[in-house]
Amino acid sequence: MAISLEKGGNVSLSKEAPGLDSIMVGLGWDVRATDGTDFDLDASAFLLKADGKVRSDSDFCFYNNMNVGGGGVVHQGDNRTGEGEGDDEQIQITLSKVPADVDKIAIAVTIHDGEANRQNFGQVSNAFIRLVDNASGKEVVRYDLSEDASVETAMILGEVYRHASEWKFRAVGQGFKGGLGPLASSYGVNV
Amino acid sequence: MQLQQGEKRGLGDLGIEARFRVAVEYGLSDMDMAAFGLDQNGKIGDDRYVVLFSNLKSPDGEIELASGPGNATFSVDLDRLPEKVHRIVFTATHDVRAVAESRPLAVTLGDGKAQFDVASCLNDEKAVMMIEIYRHSAGWKVGAVAAGFAGGLAALIEHFGGEVGGHSSAIEAAASPPVNLTKIKLEKSNPTVNLKKTGANFGEITVNLNWNQGSARRGIFGGPRPVDLDLGVLFELEDGYRGVVQALGNAFGAFHVEPWIELSGDDRTGAVSSGETIRVNGAYFSHIRRLAFFALIYDGVPNWQQTDGVVRVTIPGQPEIEVRMDDGRNDRRLCGIALIDNVSGDLRVTRHMQYYESQKPFADDIGIYLQWTAGSKD
């Protein structure tokens, strides 16, 4: 039974799924039910040092830079509408491959052209992030963010981080105005 | 505060109590405002909690609608709402035009605690969810939605899990009070609708006249006498048989034999909530050439404005057709309301809405020529 986190909650991945190494991070949202421009949500990941910044621009994992951190974090491609069951976008994380100086991996979702299309996360239904143990195929932890979102066009959904000798996951649910560019800048990426 | 599209706020954070008002201000005629009480799946679970022009309040008055020109106000009491109602979505719909044409279209919550300018967020939607009030673990919240469907009311109902136009519709299935969500309003600008048979025939065609008797306005000295409105129909059959079905002269007609038209009875006061009804046997529609429905003020001073009359034509499997008697002329006793014509098997309904001294000039005007003598109901 997967753990369902509330905003701000965290869980020890090492305890929940002993031996966990290969993780599929799934992100999903409902396709737009009303008329208008579809919501094109983009998943991205930032490999961060202890100071909360990227080591270099190449630590920014997104649709134009899919394989990052020596194969530790791999983006699986872009879904343009949210159509289909289950995950809409996926990012694979292999914990053993994550460089030692990367302290945490922040996972974010942004609305493509959100400002131009006057779209924000308050309009997106049933967005979630979940972590699946690839070895067992089981969902380890899940966070449904729908009610924590409002007028932001970028959301930091969660972060996978080192804590002493183990890996943990935190449900962040932190909105960010301005979209992907400003979000990346805040992590020290030159965009 | 001004809400932005997509914004979600706790009602408590906005200083809004459990009993509050949702006021909608709009600037486009013939817009309909509704509040859809939905279950936890966002679907219509109990249509008595769909509050709109034809169902002005939920069972215990937890949601009540009051309308005026260019405004609609919903009074909401969240504490009294049953558990099963998880969400109330406030909608604006128009039959033919984009809701965005309405300027303003604005929602005010809690007498000014929060406002939302809906119109500026819209495109070509004819049915729009303006705001929603919903249960959340931390209490009730409000979401500024401003999204909808170019497909209009039908698409909106489908979104809420209802069906439109079918016999099996959950909306139509509920017996009381009737909530009619599909309808065609015949007006000056669109006076005609053509219907094709959906089955072997049109089934039982019901024409109902209902009016406001206005008793609430009468003072302790009695005030004006109640208005007695009679529904009648002039008919012309394919075989040339012409006549009238009306309470006057006890000409109640017959449903199963010629003329296949029957008046259900005479409501002399307007106190019978169902008003007056004429049924037409659609199985014999091929024998019918033309029907001309009229309302007659038999007794009392002709005061059409006060009657607030509405005629509804109901045909199984077809959208309800509504004609409002809103162009009153006080000096004439008879209002020719609507015509039904058999046009090569199709059923054409036309808004007529003209006033006459009596049946004869109406009949002459529409070309059903009869011999007339004075009659009485008593």
UniProtKB/TrEMBL annotation, chain A:
Keyword Cytoplasm in record? no
The UniProt record lists the TerD domain at 1-187
One Pfam family from the UniProt entry?
A: TerD
Alphabetized, the UniProt keywords read:
Tellurium resistance
| Gene3D superfamilies, per the entry | sav2460 like domains (2.60.60.30)
Q: Which family does it belong to?
A: Belongs to the CAPAB/TerDEXZ family.
PANTHER family, A to Z: CAMP-BINDING PROTEIN 1-RELATED (PTHR32097), GENERAL STRESS PROTEIN 16U (PTHR32097:SF4)
Q: What is this protein called?
A: Chemical-damaging agent resistance protein C
Higher taxonomy: Bacteria, Pseudomonadati, Pseudomonadota, Alphaproteobacteria, Sphingomonadales
UniProtKB/TrEMBL annotation, chain B:
Write down what this protein is called: Tellurium resistance protein TerA
Q: Does the keyword NAD apply?
A: no
- InterPro entries linked: Stress/Tellurium_Resist, Tellurite_resistance_TerA, TerD
Query: Where does the TerD domain lie?
Result: 10-160
Can the keyword Methyltransferase be found in this entry's annotation?
Answer: no
UniProtKB keywords: Tellurium resistance
